[in-house]
């Protein structure tokens, strides 16, 4: 496939917002005109091996014929229909698969259109549940620091309150409760006091807390931190003891990313409410899901309104449901466990030399996630160009250089990614070391 389309970059810079970008000092936007398997194709014909699977969603790679065929078939018959008072085969099919794949307790499915909305829905479910159970004062959410759950207002309220992306909104954001982030590394037994602050908050405020929300095992955009399954086990027990719902946000970790189908399986626990997104459709179109237990659904139905108060226009969109159903079929073929295990082993081996690079603080790998944590924040624009020059797409943030590739990536492609990570980390480390207090090196500005 060759690229022929030319992109109007001047119009793009002047008129189009990109994520977390200034309109006066915008980061460069590279023109992508096509994608194939694990590669992005630029307007000048260059191919970049995608190390991010388009923000962790395209787990099957680009242009998978099975998903495309399902979407084309759906598009020809019913691309969209309102979900109020109407149902359709694609919504039923994907919901059946989600109920079968997730834990036994999760039996009810709410189909929305983005991960942030899945979190909003989960939080509203928790509040309405307690209204139906005669405890309307339970309206606060407890979470941990360094978390990330989305960009809408309720989701922002449970993102990291100090170093997170949404601190500038101040009191416009609902003030929630925060415990320290888990300290115990993944694979280690729980540090004795790791849950003490969480328990103290639950003991003091459980009468006003509706739910705890947490990203299981991996804090993604907040810190790229992998923590102990024992922490989740203890947290589940605390929620039961203090009669608080547990919301697990698996938008980033679901569908195999951490080496288990769902990250909560590392701890062998169940959620009361579960948020899914990103890889749900294989990254082909936006769809998210919030699942809950029978008990949560009954509590909501017993609330004063008698109904759950949410209903997006594109809820249960048939085209998105068809893509998700096809993506889940591919997941259920069960090739991903071997793929993800091989990716993890190769990343462990090939990223290990980064520990000897000046400026590197830590190297972490779990499932199909590989992270080089730098001591200093990095300049995203400069690093991005360095990666593109090496034929790969890796988009760092803060002081994290990471990859979450498609499960279908080849060993050769993965090696090109890991080698580029080592080279760019060395450049960033050297420049940060040389820079005193100015911005001459790879110091963050976006």
Structure description:
This protein has 446 residues and is α/β, with parallel strands linked by helices. It folds into two domains: 9-63 and 335-433, Aspartate Aminotransferase, domain 1 (Alpha-Beta Complex), CATH 3.90.1150; 66-333, 3-Layer(aba) Sandwich (Aspartate Aminotransferase, domain 2). The chain has 13 helices and 16 strands. It has helices spanning 9-15, 53-56, 65-77, 89-101, 115-132, 153-157, 196-205, 229-241, 294-301, 318-332, 336-351, 380-389, 411-434; strands at 32-36, 39-42, 47-50, 106-112, 140-144, 177-179, 209-214, 218-219, 225-226, 245-249, 273-276, 288-293, 360-366, 369-374, 392-393, 400-403. The strands form four sheets. The chain has a seven-stranded mixed sheet, sandwiched between helices. Helix 6 links the parallel strand 5 (140-144) and strand 6 (177-179). Helix 11 runs parallel beside helix 13. The longest helix is centred in the C-terminal third of the chain and has 24 residues, at 411-434. The chain is globular. The two termini are 33 Å apart.
């Amino acid at each position: 496939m060759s690229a022929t389309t030319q992109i109007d970059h001047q119009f793009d810079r002047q008129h189009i917002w990109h994520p977390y970008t200034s309109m006066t000092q915008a980061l460069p936007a590279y023109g992508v005109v096509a994608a194939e398997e694990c590669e992005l194709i630029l307007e000048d014909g260059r191919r970049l091996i995608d190390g991010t699977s388009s923000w962790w969603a395209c787990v099957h790679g680009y242009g998978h014929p099975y998903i495309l065929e399902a979407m084309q078939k759906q598009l020809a018959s019913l691309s969209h229909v309102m979900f109020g008072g109407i149902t359709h085969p694609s919504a039923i099919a994907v919901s059946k698969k989600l109920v079968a794949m997730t834990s036994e307790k999760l039996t009810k499915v709410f189909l929305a259109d983005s991960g942030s909305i899945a979190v909003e829905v989960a939080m509203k479910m928790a509040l309405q549940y307690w209204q139906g159970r005669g405890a309307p004062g339970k309206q606060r959410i407890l979470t941990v620091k360094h978390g990330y759950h989305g960009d809408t207002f309720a989701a922002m309220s449970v993102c990291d309150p100090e170093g997170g992306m949404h601190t500038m909104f101040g009191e416009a954001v609902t003030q929630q409760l925060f415990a320290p982030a888990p300290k115990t590394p993944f694979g280690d037994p729980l540090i004795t006091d790791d849950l003490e602050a969480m328990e103290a908050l639950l003991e003091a405020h459980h009468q006003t807390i509706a739910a705890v929300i947490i990203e299981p095992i991996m804090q993604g955009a907040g810190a790229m931190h992998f923590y102990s399954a024992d922490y989740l086990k203890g947290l589940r027990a605390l929620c039961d003891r203090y009669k608080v719902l547990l919301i697990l946000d698996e938008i980033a970790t679901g569908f195999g990313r951490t080496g288990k189908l769902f990250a909560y399986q590392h701890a062998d626990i169940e959620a009361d409410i579960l948020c899914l997104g990103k890889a749900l459709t294989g990254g082909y179109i936006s769809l998210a899901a919030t699942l809950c237990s029978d008990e949560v659904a009954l509590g909501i139905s017993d609330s004063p309104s008698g109904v759950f108060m949410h209903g997006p226009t594109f809820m249960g969109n048939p085209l998105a449901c068809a893509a998700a159903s096809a993506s889940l079929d591919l997941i259920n073929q069960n090739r991903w466990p071997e793929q993800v295990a091989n990716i993890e082993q190769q990343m462990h081996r090939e990223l290990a030399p980064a520990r000897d690079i000046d400026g590197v603080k830590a190297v972490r790998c779990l499932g199909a996630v590989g992270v080089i944590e730098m001591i200093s924040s990095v300049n995203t624009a400069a690093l991005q160009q360095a990666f593109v020059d090496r034929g790969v797409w890796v988009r760092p943030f803060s002081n994290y250089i990471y990859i979450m590739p498609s499960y279908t990536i080849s060993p050769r492609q993965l090696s090109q990614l890991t080698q580029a990570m080592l080279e760019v980390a060395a450049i960033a480390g050297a420049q940060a070391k040389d820079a005193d207090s100015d911005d001459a090196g790879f110091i963050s500005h976006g």
